[in-house]
Specification:
By secondary structure, the chain is of the alpha+beta class. The protein has a single domain, classed as Ubiquitin-like (UB roll), CATH 3.10.20. The chain is built from one helix and four strands. The longest helix has 16 residues, at 47-62.
Length: 74
């Protein structure tokens, strides 16, 4: 897949760190599977992975986390 950001690199399977913020909460998920551009590092998550990431982040926010660092496990 050609990167839509830099239009130079190809995206390949890899892992990324996703950081999400809502209000006073910052949620960091490490080792998230993604397609990563070899040129600029932009990443693309599948719909399934996106749903899992958002669900885990929502749980952390609801629990009152100010900063939460999680290792992603599919």
């Amino acid at each position: 897949m050609k990167c839509v950001i830099c239009k130079q690199g190809e995206a390949h399977p890899g892992e990324v760190t996703v950081t999400l913020q809502r209000g006073e909460s910052t949620i960091i998920l490490k080792n998230v599977p993604a397609e990563v551009c070899e040129n600029c590092g932009e990443y693309y998550l599948s719909e399934e992975i996106t749903e899992q990431v958002l669900s885990r982040a929502e749980e952390a926010v609801k629990s009152g986390a100010e900063v939460e660092i999680l290792r992603f496990a599919a």
